[in-house]
Design brief:
alpha+beta; 6-stranded mixed β-barrel
Length: 431
């Protein structure tokens, strides 16, 4: 069953543009029809680990850019240019004139927006929507290699642009070896009936491979100047918010612009991670379990810093902080039988003999004493009733960046105020 009313509960929808958000593999998703290709939980966690490794290596060293060569485009330079894993949440936007609806994975850890395009000169993976045909749109045009905007691809993708008969060529590779290469172009983007943007810069992919789960491409919500929030900044002032639904059968929202922000939202300052200026940096200051703050030294969280990322599934913590969280959680759950680990999740339980289970509340604290209570659905990751796991993992080192992932963001209204340099959290954003 698919519940479509969750995103309508936000007041003042008319003051901003709001799009329904569904889980990529849930019944509300148009992509759900191809059941054979739904990944297992172990697959999802494996891809998540690939994404996290690629974020860490990107932040550990400021990678030099590589050249995208159109003649050899299938072999994209294996740089950790960008990151997408199981990319979990999708929205539908319109592209072209007349507009064609496309389901795109939205990702705060990526900048460039791209979709697969006809004629798929090299390769297109299977997607649910018809593949976008630039030749049928009256507003499509390629960007020239000579234009300055072509060079802006380097910071957005981690790769220097290529050139194919004077047309600018982009290339982006993600942490799990998925990639997209094609023409950098401009086109009309339709978010809602009234919010239409001409000359939106995007990638028209001619060679695309990877684990995009039937989505037509990716919507980049990062901080680079080519991201959607930056390109629509005149109207929305880099202000957007979303709520990720708690289960695959509910719907959340992705909204652009002010309005509809719940009174419960509390803001923390946005920080910038060195080497990772397109990521949304966030300062974690503490964690509580069952209402009791864990004794973790502040320096544990500052050693590597932190980011919030809509595309990482499981929150990654400094190992010292994770050990404290795991220990307190196991203590509170000692009456339940443990089960074997699930991939990166090492604290799992067998609830098959229980009709109800009591789980301690967990809250995250961010700078400015902002508390984000984690939804019960964000505390546990369910493989099946006999293997239900604590949905957090430790990084390999305290100096690796911590990542506040999408499982822990479920049902929270998460507000990004790019111009104001802050991020807000409010409870009860959606079901």
């Amino acid at each position: 069953m698919c519940i479509y009313d969750a995103w309508l509960s936000i007041s003042a929808l008319d003051k901003k543009s709001s799009l329904p958000v569904v889980h990529k593999h849930g019944p509300c998703s148009q992509l759900h029809q191809d059941k054979a290709n739904i990944p297992t939980h172990a697959d999802i966690l494996l891809r998540d680990e690939a994404r996290v490794k690629s974020i860490h290596s990107k932040l550990a060293k400021n990678l030099g850019s590589s050249i995208v060569d159109e003649t050899d485009a299938a072999v994209i330079p294996a740089k950790d240019g960008s990151v997408v894993g199981s990319g979990n949440y999708i929205v539908t936007v319109g592209l072209g004139t007349p507009k064609k609806d496309l389901s795109l994975i939205f990702d705060t850890g990526s900048d460039i927006t791209w979709t697969q395009c006809q004629p798929c000169a090299r390769s297109c993976y299977k997607q649910q929507d018809p593949i976008f045909a630039p030749s049928l749109s009256s507003t499509y045009s390629n960007i020239s290699c000579a234009s300055t905007v072509c060079n802006s691809l380097t910071s957005a993708t981690g790769n220097s642009p290529g050139c194919s008969s004077s047309a600018c060529v982009y290339g982006i590779q993600y942490g799990d070896s998925s990639f997209s290469v094609g023409f950098f172009a401009k086109e009309t983007l339709t978010l809602t009936k009234t919010d239409v943007f001409g000359n939106f810069l995007f990638g028209c992919g001619q060679n695309n491979q990877g684990l995009f789960g039937g989505a037509a491409g990716l919507l980049g919500l990062g901080r680079d100047k080519l991201s959607l929030p930056s390109q629509t900044a005149l109207k929305y002032k880099k202000f957007f918010s979303y709520c990720l639904p708690s289960s695959a059968s509910s719907t959340g929202f992705l909204s652009f612009g002010y309005g509809g922000i719940s009174k419960s939202v509390k803001f923390t300052t946005l920080s910038t991670i060195s080497q990772g200026s397109s990521f949304y940096g966030i300062d974690i200051t503490g964690i509580s379990v069952g209402g009791k703050k864990l004794s973790i030294s502040a320096s544990v969280f500052t050693a590597g810093g932190g980011i919030i990322d809509s595309g990482t599934v499981i929150t990654r913590l400094p190992p010292t902080a994770y050990a404290a969280l795991r220990s307190a959680f196991r203590q509170a759950m000692s009456q339940y039988p443990m089960a074997k680990a699930l991939s990166i999740l090492d604290t799992c339980y067998d609830f098959s003999k229980y009709s109800s289970v009591t789980v301690p509340k967990i809250s995250f604290f961010f700078s400015g004493s902002v508390e984000a209570p984690i939804s019960p659905r964000g505390i546990l990751y369910v493989n099946d009733v006999s293997q239900v796991c604590l949905a957090f993992a430790g990084n390999s080192d305290d100096t690796d960046v911590a990542i506040f992932g999408n499982t822990q963001q479920k049902t929270l209204q998460v507000v990004y105020d790019g111009a104001g340099g802050r991020i807000g959290f409010g409870t009860g954003g959606c079901a």
